[in-house]
Amino acid sequence: MNTINIDEAQSQLPSLVDRAARGESFVIAKGGKPLVKVSALEAPAESSRLGFLEGEIEVPDDFDRMGEREIAALFGMSE
To answer: How far apart are CA 69 and CA 15, in angstroms?
Structure first.
């Protein structure tokens, strides 16, 4: 595992974060004394949002036609 001086870590933070996110762990040291270990988080995979309200709401059968007269009137297309 690599050890990086804190001054170097401050000047290279974006690239160090990228390296850690790719799975490379390293230690940040100050004055040769190890302070912290940096490694990627074990984040859970994102779940699908599709269907998250299933059973909570009801969509009317005429949903795709709701307000069509009012919309047509706004565009001067009334019958």
So the answer is: 57
Q: Please name the amino acid found at residue 30.
A: K
How far is it, in rounded angstroms, from Cα 15 to Cα 25? 13
Residue 14 has φ and ψ, to the nearest 5°, of -55, -45
Average pLDDT of span 12-39: 94
Q: Which amino acid type is present at position 4?
A: I
pTM for this model (two decimals): 0.52
Q: Is residue 65 within a helix (H) or strand (E), and if so which, with residue range?
A: none
- Give 50-61 pLDDT, tens digit per residue: 888 888 998 889
Strands, E assignment, 19-61:
26-30, 33-38
The structural domains of the chain, ordered by start, are 2-38 (3.40.1620.10)
